From TrEMBL:
Descriptive protein name: LUD domain-containing protein
The species this protein was found in: Desulfosporosinus acidiphilus (strain DSM 22704 / JCM 16185 / SJ4)
Superkingdom of the source species: Bacteria
Listed Pfam families: LUD_dom
Gene3D superfamilies: NagB/RpiA/CoA transferase-like
Length: 185
């Protein structure tokens, strides 16, 4: 059950993410998250998804939920399939409320995580609400207190955007055109 502090952090994160054209949702359970994501994917016309299984997706049986909604689910060979996948789903380690930023932190440079979050036109990121941290400073402190500092740490703030081509803002050149974040309580 969510408390006032987690609600406040979630609302701050959501406002920051939406300010950079991201979408943000919240679900009570893993199963509810799967239904929500399936509905979102169907609304966006997604026919297949590269699903990097994580604790949330496994517990919510997301792969089966999507199959039941006639969405093809790919769970391996990401190097070959992500360039043609309509969406990718990953679980991220942390979310930073003050920035509306997601944090991928892995012991090794997980290539599958990066493929499913950067080579697809839509990235759906799952995150535990309890992993929502107020500030960047607190997030860095949390990472430094881990038993082993991760070999890879990546930060994601909204859909890919660049202005390096004649100073014109372009979305989706170096990564996903859409970012959907689903917090799971």
């Amino acid at each position: 059950m969510a408390n006032a502090r987690s609600n406040e952090l979630y609302e701050k994160f959501k406002a920051k993410l939406e300010a950079v054209s991201g979408e943000c949702y919240r679900a009570d359970t893993e199963e509810e998250a799967g239904k929500l994501i399936g509905t979102i994917l169907k609304e966006k016309g997604v026919q297949n998804v590269a699903l990097l299984e994580g604790e949330i997706s496994q517990k919510g049986n997301l792969a089966q939920q999507f199959k039941d909604m006639n969405i093809d689910v790919i769970t391996s060979n990401f190097r070959e399939v992500t360039p043609d996948a309509h969406a990718g789903i990953t679980q991220v380690s942390y979310a930073i409320a003050e920035l509306g930023t997601l944090v991928q932190a892995d012991e090794d440079a997980n290539v599958d995580q990066r493929l499913c979050s950067t080579l697809v036109p839509i990235h759906v990121a799952l995150v535990r609400t309890e992993s929502l941290i107020p500030t960047l400073a607190e997030t860095m402190s949390t990472i430094h207190q881990l038993p082993q500092i991760p070999g890879f740490v990546g930060f994601i703030t909204g859909p890919s955007r660049t202005s390096d081509i004649e100073r014109v803002l372009t979305i989706g050149v170096h990564g996903p055109k859409q970012l959907v974040v689903v917090f799971v309580d």
